[in-house]
Design goal:
about 200 residues, mainly alpha, about 55% helix, flat
């Protein structure tokens, strides 16, 4: 904690705020100018978007455009040096569906969806076993205070069980929707089945 004298000394060393104050109008004008200078909006990618951009090229900024008088340093023609028409990543010979999504995309996406369903099913089984154990302990216990504590754990487990059932239903629905989407986009059945080649 700072002492009062240190705070007062720091306040005395600070320049007066009156000479440095800006009006709200000046700040708004500066912000408007700053926003006009920004050419593109930044693209925000959330966790739900990661599957779309999984195999795409990664860029973190834009390179400065060389002046017209400068010659490209590479031996490529000027048209290719200024901007390539194809993506920077090498082309693969992996088969794709009608939407351009690869076999590995579908195998990974379907595998992740199946894994989520399996995890939730296992969690439901664990909660059933835990609930049975708690109920057995409740009826064996003769102390009222201990029974109340066990009853609270039973209620908590029942809540977790309901939440897991809801999550499992959503995960199964998502898996069905992914299978429909894959079929509509022309993905081969082997890609959806989840068996590795």
């Amino acid at each position: 904690m700072k002492s009062i004298t240190a705070i007062l000394a720091a306040a005395l060393l600070m320049p007066p705020a009156v000479g440095y104050a800006q009006s709200l109008g000046d700040l708004a004008k500066k912000e408007k100018e700053r926003r006009e200078k920004v050419k593109e909006e930044a693209k925000v990618i959330t966790n739900s978007d990661t599957s779309k951009y999984r195999n795409g090229p990664v860029t973190t900024g834009s390179l400065p455009v060389p002046a017209a008088s400068e010659k490209p340093t590479s031996e490529k023609p000027a048209a290719q040096a200024a901007g390539q028409t194809k993506a920077d990543k090498p082309e693969s010979d992996e088969p794709t569906d009608l939407e351009g999504r690869t076999e590995s995309y579908w195998r990974e996406t379907m595998g992740d969806a199946r894994k989520k369903v399996t995890e939730l099913e296992n969690m439901g089984n664990v909660l059933n076993l835990r609930l049975n154990d708690l109920q057995n302990r409740f009826y064996k216990e003769s102390d009222g205070f201990q029974q109340q504590a066990i009853q609270r754990e039973i209620q908590k487990t029942l809540y977790e069980q309901d939440k897991t059932r809801e999550d499992l239903a959503k995960a199964r629905e998502l898996l069905r929707d992914l299978e429909k989407e894959a079929r509509k986009s022309g993905a081969l059945p082997g890609w959806i089945a989840g068996k590795n080649p």
